[in-house]
């Protein structure tokens, strides 16, 4: 014998049992966490929520979106969520979204423009209230088209054009890496600079190179190589740099995984990081301090970046004028540069 099918619990069900108008019940149950007290008296709010819990009431998100013309949904686009930096940023986005009564979902674009365009249209098709891009190209051409359609969005991790963004102050981070290596006496240095379309690599490299130039030690273009941001890219970049003469005494890689790849390339040539070759990374991912030779790196406030990015989007969706935010980096000195 099957169990008797029970009709769904609706706002009308609750209102009838409580002897209240359905609009009162709706205001209480659909209010944001900090707004429930303004929807009815404290005693009424408690009665409504207690009965809703007892009967197992669940809001109908489709009906809610029709009433408010909002989905309370934010789409997030990143190159790949397997990257610990992007995963940490997304955790910050999710935390802030929950505080604002929003839901998020994420899709990977692999940093491929055609995929980015297709995935953005897919996300917009889900009637999101706003977007967060973690895969911006520096030329901002695609993003300008999205802005022209009136879609509110915020960039995280990377900047592009004048679009609102929350990033690390990557230029300052590059300066910190250069000042550290200069203080150790390194004058023949090289850079594994990441992809040429991403502001992260561009700005970190610029801060590093400008600081060396200001110190009277220009870094030749031949000692700056562009590679993917992963460990394999860092290895390939370092292999090119370690064929040059004279050998660089230090390498700055614009993220930690590229730095790990550079350490591997050095090891294969009989060079020990921190003793024969100083290596500095960027981001301070959890792995950096736990390597056999702990990695000197620039700490980027990844979680805060995501949290602030979502908070900025909420303000933008509310019609406020917003400004981009640059978060301060921190130098973390470890054995890969000091031995």
From TrEMBL:
One of its GO terms (molecular function) is sigma factor activity. It comes from the Bacteria. Keywords: DNA-binding, Transcription, Transcription regulation. InterPro entries: HTH_LacI, LacI/GalR-like_sensor, Lambda_DNA-bd_dom_sf, Peripla_BP_I, RNA_pol_sigma_54. It comes from Amycolatopsis alkalitolerans. It holds the Pfam family LacI. Residues 9-68 form the HTH lacI-type domain. Gene3D superfamilies: 3.40.50.2300, lambda repressor-like DNA-binding domains. This is Substrate-binding domain-containing protein.
């Amino acid at each position: 014998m099957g169990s008797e099918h029970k009709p769904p619990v609706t706002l009308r069900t609750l209102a009838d049992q409580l002897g209240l108008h359905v609009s009162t019940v709706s205001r209480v149950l659909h209010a944001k966490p900090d707004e429930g007290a303004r929807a009815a008296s404290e005693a009424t709010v408690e009665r409504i929520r207690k009965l809703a819990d007892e009967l197992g009431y669940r809001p109908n998100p489709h009906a809610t979106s029709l009433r408010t013309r909002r989905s309370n949904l934010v789409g997030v686009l990143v190159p790949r969520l397997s990257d610990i930096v992007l995963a940490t940023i997304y955790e910050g986005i999710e935390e802030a979204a929950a505080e604002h009564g929003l839901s998020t979902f994420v899709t990977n674009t692999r940093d491929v423009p055609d995929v980015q365009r297709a995935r953005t249209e897919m996300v917009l098709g889900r009637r999101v209230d706003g977007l967060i891009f973690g895969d911006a190209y520096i030329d901002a051409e695609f993003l300008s088209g999205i802005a022209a359609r009136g879609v509110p969005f915020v960039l995280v991790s990377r900047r592009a054009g004048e679009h609102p963004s929350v990033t690390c102050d990557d230029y300052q981070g590059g300066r910190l890496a250069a000042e550290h290596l200069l203080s150790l006496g390194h004058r023949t240095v090289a850079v594994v600079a990441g992809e040429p379309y991403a502001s992260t690599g561009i700005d970190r490299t610029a801060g590093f190179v400008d600081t060396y130039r200001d110190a009277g030690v220009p870094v030749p273009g031949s000692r700056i190589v562009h590679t993917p941001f992963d460990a394999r890219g860092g290895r390939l970049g370092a292999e090119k740099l370690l064929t040059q003469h004279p050998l660089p005494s230090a390498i700055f890689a614009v993220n930690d995984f590229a730095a790990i790849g550079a350490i591997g390339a050095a090891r294969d040539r009989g060079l020990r990081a921190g003793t024969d070759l100083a290596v500095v990374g960027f981001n301070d991912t959890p792995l950096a301090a736990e390597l056999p030779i702990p990695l000197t790196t620039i700490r980027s406030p990844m979680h805060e970046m995501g949290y602030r990015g979502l908070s900025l989007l909420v303000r933008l969706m509310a019609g406020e004028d917003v400004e981009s935010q640059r978060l301060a980096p921190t130098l973390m000195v470890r054995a890969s540069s000091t031995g």
